[in-house]
Design goal:
The chain is α/β, with parallel strands linked by helices. The protein is built from five helices and eight strands; from the N terminus they run βββαββαββαααβ. A hairpin with a 2-residue loop joins strand 4 and strand 5.
Length: about 190
């Protein structure tokens, strides 16, 4: 991971909840600078840190925000939506049968043809070769058992998993609000 002293491409701002924690770790809660300027003018955010870059209009000048905090707290306790991305995040972006991170799909542990439903508790991440090998069989019949029993994750659990996947670059002004083990490059 690279820590940047100049703004990343597009000068996005890290968006924090009112409690100064990121709204999301994966994907990292970043807004484009245009959205941040709009939120500042609508008085929806407080500017915590800025880049050295400035935006100007004929009657106004403002340093681009690099970190903003929402003025109103957004509750994070609601159950996460069942999406392909959230499923992959729950399973650490690895096949639950062989551990491969490549060519990911999802697999019904109890096949739909056997009455299995599309729920958190019956779907796991699987690479395409494992999914094809298992086919319409149960784990016992295929001699393929998921590494972890599939469960409905909490929002906290998904956020915690997201911390395992830091982006390729971070701006130095974001570091005080992110909780990754980061080695700073001199």
């Amino acid at each position: 991971m690279q820590v940047l002293s100049r703004p990343p491409s597009g000068a996005p701002a890290l968006v924090l909840n009112a409690d100064f924690r990121p709204l999301s770790y994966y994907p990292l809660s970043l807004w484009p600078w245009q959205e941040v300027i709009k939120a500042v003018f609508l008085d929806r955010v407080d500017v915590i840190s800025t880049y050295d870059e400035v935006v100007r209009s004929p009657s106004f000048e403002m340093q681009l925000p690099s970190v903003v905090a929402l003025k109103s707290y957004v509750p994070q306790e609601r159950p996460p939506a069942f999406t392909r991305f959230n499923l992959f995040l729950r399973d650490g972006f690895t096949c639950q049968y062989c551990g491969s991170p490549d060519d990911l799909t999802f697999d019904h542990v109890i096949p739909r043809s056997r009455g299995g439903r599309t729920t958190w508790e019956n779907i796991v991440t699987a690479c395409a070769p494992c999914n094809l090998t298992k086919g319409g069989r149960t784990p016992r019949e295929a001699h393929m058992h998921p590494r972890r029993h599939p469960v409905r994750p909490s929002t906290f659990a998904l956020q915690d998993n997201g911390r395992r996947f830091p982006p390729g670059h971070l701006h130095k002004s974001w570091l005080d609000y992110l909780y990754w083990d980061i080695e700073l490059e001199a």
